[in-house]
Amino acid sequence: MADQLVESRRSEDILRQENQELRTFLKNCQRELTNAQSFFCSPGSIAENDIVQAVHALNAEIYQAVKRLAEECHLGSRRSDTKARQRITAIVEPRVTELLQNFPPQNDDRVVLEVALLATVMVYVAEMISLWTADRSVNEVVDAMYRSIVESEPIIVATHWRALARKHSMLNQATAEEQEREHVQGMLKHVSAVMEVARVKSWNEKDLHECLHIIARAGLALRRTVGEDVVASEYQVFAAQPDESFAPEVMVDQYAPNKRLQRTGVRVMCTLRLGLRRREREARGESKGRVEVKILIKPQVVLETIVQDLDLAEMKGERKGTKV
Fold first, then answer.
1. How far apart are the two ends of the chain, measured CA to CA in Å?
2. E-assigned strands of 117-249?
3. What is the pTM of this model?
4. DSSP, res 151
5. What is 90-130 written as a DSSP string?
6. Orientation of helix 176-197 relative to helix 94-102, angle to 10°
7. What's the rounded Cα separation, in Å, for the pair 214 and 209?
8. pLDDT digits over 125-166, tens only?
9. Pairing relation of β-strands 252-253 and 300-303?
10. Which of 37, 114, 197, 204 has most Cβ atoms within 10 angstroms of its Cβ?
């Protein structure tokens, strides 16, 4: 009888221990489930329309700043140096520099100057929004890694990876104010080079500086939105690539002489307005499947036919004839 009682108590102890272990296991499972739900099911607090409107507002801010700068600057006859041309060519298509040199701004026509300024600022801002870290030397590596994740993993995994990588890459680096000042100086350097190549004598530097601060602040805010805050979808603010073939379904030909004219396949020279696209997998829950791209804002572009589109050669000839 005593032996049976001892055995019974030992069995109870074993059951009690197993029960405690099971409770601990279930508690851990519950905690992991909660963490998983917060990771995969976090609701998007930012509406797609808000992102669309932010890109439109940024495009408008850049356009207004460039328009005012081009219209109010004072033209001169100074000669541009090689360094200024190299600074522009480092960020935009070399043909933009050639266009500016061949068709410098006139008192009654500054459209080429506007094109060069817009192209330069748009490319800079698009790059600023897409940067992973403040160290540009590592961005290509991280970007290639991210593209691989997007193509091989569920989109929700890719977007969370991107949000965390963007967030932590900037920790312990420059503050928001320091980043803004850095990008203002970067844009100012390129804009000044454009003005020098265009043989502009002077411009309102105070007004330009204020405008570039607004642009940098808006661009960095948009970078945080699409790079860190939004995890339900994958958004990209982008500029069309130079020499890319024009495709009317994904871009707008800004200077088409006839809107019905078929220009498919003509090469792009530069971008005048940034575009916005959303990437998502055809089957959202699967790791495999085709990645679909939806264009939310078509970038506005200038094609390699701009000289003919705007009759620049003819106007230049008329000016020479008038001088004679």
1. 129
2. 200-202, 234-238
3. 0.81
4. H
5. TTS-HHHHHHHHHS--BTTB-HHHHHHHHHHHHHHHHHHHH
6. 40
7. 9
8. 999 999 888 777 778 888 888 888 888 888 788 888 888 888
9. parallel
10. 197
Encoded tokens for 100: 């500016």
Q: What is the dihedral of CA 67, 69, 70, 76, to 10 degrees?
A: 170
Per-position DSSP letters for 293-320, written without gaps between them: EEEEEPPEEEETTHHHHTTHHHHHHHHH
Q: For tokens 């748009």, what's the residue? A: 122
Picking from 232, 255, 274, the residue whose alpha carbon sits closest to that of residue 112 is: 255
The residue with tokens 């004598």 is 201
Q: Which of 40, 58, 52, 42 is nearest to 226 (CA)?
A: 52
Report residue 95: phi and psi, to 5°. -65, -25
Q: What is the pLDDT of residue 106?
A: 87
CA distance 222 to 96: 27
How far is Cα 217 from Cα 178, in angstroms, rounded to an integer?
Answer: 11
pLDDT of 297-314, one tens digit each? 999 999 999 988 888 866
